[in-house]
Write a structure and sequence with these properties.
The protein is of the alpha/beta class and 307 residues long. The chain is built from eleven helices and eight strands.
Amino acid sequence: MAAYDRGPEGGEHVEVVEVGPRDGLQNEARVLSVEDRIELIDRAVAAGVRRIEAVSFVNPKRVPQMAGAEEIMAGVGRAPGVSHIGLVLNRRGLERAVAAGVSEVNVAVPATDGFCVRNQGCTVEEMLETLADIDRDLEGTGIPLSVTVSTAFGCPFDGEVPAERVVDVVRRIADTSAVEVALADTIGVGVPHQVSELLAAVGEVAGERALRCHFHNTRNTGYANALAAVVAGVRVLDSSLGGFGGCPFAPAATGNIATEDLLYMLHRSGWHTGVSLSGAAALGEWMGQRLDKQPPAYLGRAGAFPS
């Protein structure tokens, strides 16, 4: 099938959520300026991205790469139909996100206590209670809630994560107003068979909520996992321009699956995304220049086919 810049017209749509401005940058040694991050977000929107994880409302002393969230939200363009997502982990973060005017709130709830305690300073049960508080506080704001279940495929501290554990967490999330549940392979250990099985199990308790997947390519299975998710019926995938990003608890991690590499796979396979492959590749290279690093993505090196 011929490669189209945004995927074949008439092809079934797969939504790509760009997480580069948050997950892609949060572990980088070089901190991008507020101005650079605004440019990154606005250029991603110009390339066709319609949902973008723009900012994180965490303590800037703990994560200096995410400082300036309010300034970024004040500076980005607000094109119709574009959702700027803000990550929050507690009620204080939610207050900041609502005041800053985010389009959507995303809350991360790990599936394991080992990761939750080290990353968020609480147990999974405590984080679920915080999620319930955030859900109540969002009532009446008109801001939709999405929830990401991190370490859904494996944990750097607790090891293998039984599917039943993830299902239990999703069942609790289903008690909230969340419109979408994302399963995240935080440290890049999942394989396609696991993706298919976990999605089937979670789908039984998620109700009418959309399912989304977030993969890392740490062990070179990220794109195979993304394809397995789409074949299983998932129509929303996270990715990061240039393939930047990763988890501080995953040594030698190679980052998120790259937006441009994901687009190439999806477009050549007959799906439509509405995102420009050439625009994404150029932005991945731009990020590499700003971070003074070679992007992990391959498309910027090899080029599209046909060229």
